[in-house]
Design brief:
Elements: H1 3-7, H2 66-76, H3 88-95, H4 97-131, H5 133-141, H6 146-174, H7 176-179, H8 191-216, H9 221-227
């Protein structure tokens, strides 16, 4: 307890939960609430602001209370400077504006990364199927069924995709310390998020591998071997 509080003993009449006064992503600081008439500025050895803040709770629209509250204060003293009122929603929104902007950018870049990954996987698999047309034609001429070709290409493509997802998960876990300052109320090592993201990437990788593999099953072995 600081010195000026020790010089002014107070009776504790209640304890409230932690209040995040500045921002939602910062911890609460120790504070006490004193009745306004009991505050003695001369006994506090630090700069003391004479500003007073009033919180009004109402079932009506909060925005409609600003003008009546301002007029009520001016009815007591017309020379008082009254700042425009703000709703709690506006205060909370302003406190997380920077974090929200960072998260929007992060989501935007993550979405672009997913699109690039899907296009990349599809392009690689398409190129691989094109390069292996002769091989696929020979396999089908020797008795391989379209389902066998489909399974072969899917297995090879999904193996590489799953390997990339595993490497990405390790990289994501390593980057959790960097992301810790950008999230609030959510653990950066939330397994639901990691599992959900992995399943989405697996689905995208499967679809990106499936269409080139499906195209490979429609090859005519005779035409392919004739080219060879």
């Amino acid at each position: 307890m600081v010195d000026w509080l020790e010089e002014m003993p107070r009776e504790i009449v209640g304890i409230i939960a932690d209040v995040k006064k500045r921002r939602l992503d910062t911890g609460a600081i120790p504070e006490i609430y004193l009745p306004y008439p009991q505050v003695k500025v001369t006994s506090i050895p630090r700069p003391w602001r004479s500003n007073a803040f009033f919180i009004i709770r109402s079932a009506a629209n909060p925005s409609s209370l600003a003008a009546p509250a301002r007029n009520e204060i001016w009815s007591l003293d017309r020379d008082l400077a009254v700042s425009p009122g703000r709703t709690m929603s506006e205060i909370v929104s302003d406190s997380i504006a920077q974090i929200r902007f960072s998260m929007v950018l992060l989501q935007l870049f993550a979405g672009i990364a997913v699109i690039i990954a899907a296009v990349g996987i599809y392009g690689i698999m398409s190129h691989s199927v094109t390069q292996r047309m002769n091989e696929i034609g020979v396999r089908m001429a020797l008795g391989a069924q379209p389902t066998d070709v489909l399974k072969l290409i899917l297995r090879q493509g999904m193996t590489l995709s799953l390997l990339g997802i595993v490497i990405g998960l390790f990289g994501a876990f390593a980057a959790t310390r960097i992301l810790a300052g950008l999230v609030y109320g959510v653990s950066v090592s939330d397994f639901v998020t990691f599992i959900g993201s992995s399943l989405i990437l697996i689905l995208i990788a499967f679809l990106s591998c499936y269409y080139p593999a499906r195209r490979a099953t429609k090859l005519d072995p005779a035409i392919t071997l004739r080219r060879e």
